[in-house]
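During the first year of the project, the team set up a workflow for recording each protein of interest as an amino acid sequence followed immediately by a discrete structure-token representation. This format lets reviewers and collaborators read both layers of information side by side without switching files. As required by the reporting guidelines, we include two representative entries from the current panel. The first entry is reproduced here exactly as it appears in our internal archive.
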Amino acid sequence: MVSQQEYGSQEKHLLAVDCVIFGYERGELKLLLFKRQLEPEKGNWSLIGGWVEPNETIEQAAERVLLKITGLSRIFQEEVKVFSAPDRDPGGRVVSIAFYALIDIKSHDKELVKQYGAQWWPVTKLPELIFDHAQMVNFSLQKLRKKASFDLVGADLLPPEFTITQLRQLYNSIFTREFDPGNFRKKVLSLNAVVRLEEKDTLDSKKGAYYFTFKKPDEIDVSVRIVNS
């Protein structure tokens, strides 16, 4: 049994969250970064994060950070990993929990992002990041790819109405490889996860490609794997 005296004798650590915020635009998976506003590493590129307040959970802290920087609430987010190397932050003993989030770039508050000096970067052309943030990004990409292998992730990254080609291009950007158009279409439609609309996209297709929209998650056949390893 731990006594109150033992609690008081333990060294205190700082607890933080870091948010790996993914968006999708013009055929590229992107990451939201900002210039760090305090020392050490002030002015260098960083993930968006913050301290966990005494009265909140780590999930609530991540939601607060996301709302503060994007103006969006109820964003899809998932815990990635705890980063606890004693020397990971030169400023002090900081334990950080990384979350990744998926947002529709068109729906976030652009002025708010600009106010914080944040910027969208293609994941294939990222600048050098502070501390262990590059590791956080890599682990988040692995987690996103695993999720995208079993679930259609476009609902969080694409507009409400999209073509199968647009969905395939999103998957190309997530996995950094080209999926066969015919096979990808067949696999997506076999999930019974999308509904075809009557409207067509006549700008990107000469014949006109039908728009689709996502069904509710509980209506999707989760037994089919989208991407085979």
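The second entry, processed by the same pipeline in the following quarter, appears below.
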Amino acid sequence: MKHVGIVAVSAEGAALCYRTICLEGAALFGPHDHPEITLHGFSLAGYQRLIDDDRWDAVGEMLLESAMKLVQSGAQLLICPDNTVHQGLDLVRGRSPAPWIHIAEEVAREARRRGFKRIGILGTRFLMEGPVYRTSLAPAGIEHRVPNSEQRARINQIIYDELVQARIVPGSRAYFQNVIRELADGGCDAVALACTEIPLLISSADSPLPILDSTRILARAALRKVSEEPLP
């Protein structure tokens, strides 16, 4: 099995991705078995300062620095369980010391596999307003919608003030459910949880639409790559 390197940005997103690889790996490889995994992460604050200043090239360089450290530790395959910073990754991916699995490309692949035509995108303000999902969904022939500006601001606040700090607030779950209902009313047939902490708050049982859990989709793509076996 290939050695997986996790480029961590937020603790909660990285932890959920790591747990998924370990727990679901056992179903493929046997009890308690999973690929070798190494994780490296700079602080979220370091990334956020660059994101706030619209310095996506520098975000990409931070990701590359993490990638180099992971490859030096033996990683052969790289993933980053953070949707927002993929805007920086897209600028430097060609210079990576090892191949990456791109989170939005995997979500697009899963959406196409499940026959979805119009996806609602939930994530940080930077992600919802940025190019990461637009450029990944369009080649797959999938439309996308995002919440309105007021909703985007509130969702962004919930992510940064609550979810990245592992705070689960029932009122915030209700807010997300109302946003998803509006996306459904606007013709969306699924919703992408395009922030790796949102699955901590919203599950399939909570959502008025089918969900595309970007965190677990990425982890399963890594398992598929290292095992070369189809996932259930």
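For the second entry, the following points were noted during internal review. The radius of gyration is 17 Å. Residues 11-29 form the longest helix (19 residues). Both points are flagged for discussion at the upcoming steering committee meeting.
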